Amino acid sequence: ARLVVLVSGSGTNLQALLDACADPSYGASVVAVGADRDGIEGLARAERAGVPTFVHRLADHPDRAAWDAALTASVASHEPDLVVCAGFMKLVGRDFLDRFGGRVLNTHPALSPSFPGMHGPADALAYGVKVTGCTLFVVDDGVDTGPIVAQAAVEVHDDDTVDSLHERIKTAERAMLVENVGRMAREGFTITDRKVRFGR
Ligand code: GRF
């Protein structure tokens, strides 16, 4: 399966996918990496792996719709089977979902439906939960609301900071992403009444 991965930061989730794809039996390859900003480690990781990259900055476009159309065109040019948002800090828009809806995955560092949005680990810590985690879901037109593919639980330690908690979540997140993207790539998946099932 052809994966296009979208990033906005350090790209450790991307790196986990790049490493997994090196094994031909994994059943997927990262054909391109897109970002919403320049100068991030995620793009450097792609370049080191010899994977084509593209960047679409919101500021370079007159409005969100134009940005979304440009992003959609770049992703489409790589003919993905799956698009994986791995730490991508933008909400994809109408054009994007019309084109790729149902095969866009996103990983979120909280146990949905708890703590949606940009600060999952911080919100979980502030709330005082004892268990948080990460969620892999199929993107719909909401914010972190799509049908759930997989989740992994992560304990919160009494001395956790946002960073220490997020790092522990990211360890679980990378494993969850690699395992489930591989299964979806090899086995296919269907979604019925918000239930995601592997198989064609
Ligand atoms: C991940 O925890 C992702 O869920 C969140 O930001 C982090 C990105 O990490 N949105 P990386 O860029 O994959 O290292």
Give a quick precis of the structure.
The chain has 200 residues and is an alpha/beta fold. The chain has helices at 12-21, 41-48, 64-76, 94-100, 120-127, 162-187; strands at 2-7, 29-35, 53-55, 82-85, 104-108, 131-138, 148-155, 189-192, 195-198. Helix 1 (12-21) packs parallel to helix 6 and helix 3 (64-76) packs parallel to helix 4 (94-100).
Main attributes of the structure:
alpha/beta, 7-stranded mixed β-sheet, two-stranded antiparallel sheet, 6 helices, binds 5-O-phosphono-beta-D-ribofuranosylamine, transferase, phosphoribosylglycinamide formyltransferase activity
Helices, strands, pairings?
Elements: E1 2-7, H1 12-21, E2 29-35, H2 41-48, E3 53-55, H3 64-76, E4 82-85, H4 94-100, E5 104-108, H5 120-127, E6 131-138, E7 148-155, H6 162-187, E8 189-192, E9 195-198
Parallel strand pairs: 1-2, 1-4, 2-3, 4-5
Antiparallel strand pairs: 5-6, 6-7, 8-9
Helix pairs in contact: 1-6, 3-4
Number of strands: 9
Q: What structural category do the secondary elements indicate?
A: alpha/beta
Order of helices and strands: EHEHEHEHEHEEHEE
* β-strand amount: 15-25%
Helix coverage percent: 25-40%
Distance from N terminus to C terminus (CA atoms, Å) equals: 14 Å
List unreliable stretches of 5+ residues. none
Treating each run of at least 4 consecutive H or I residues as one helix, how many helices? Answer: 6
The quaternary organization reads as single chain
Mean pLDDT, rounded to whole units? 97
Binding site for N(1)-(5-phospho-beta-D-ribosyl)glycinamide: 11-13
Binding site for (6R)-10-formyltetrahydrofolate: 64, 89-92, 106
Site (Raises pKa of active site His): 144
Function: Catalyzes the transfer of a formyl group from 10-formyltetrahydrofolate to 5-phospho-ribosyl-glycinamide (GAR), producing 5-phospho-ribosyl-N-formylglycinamide (FGAR) and tetrahydrofolate.
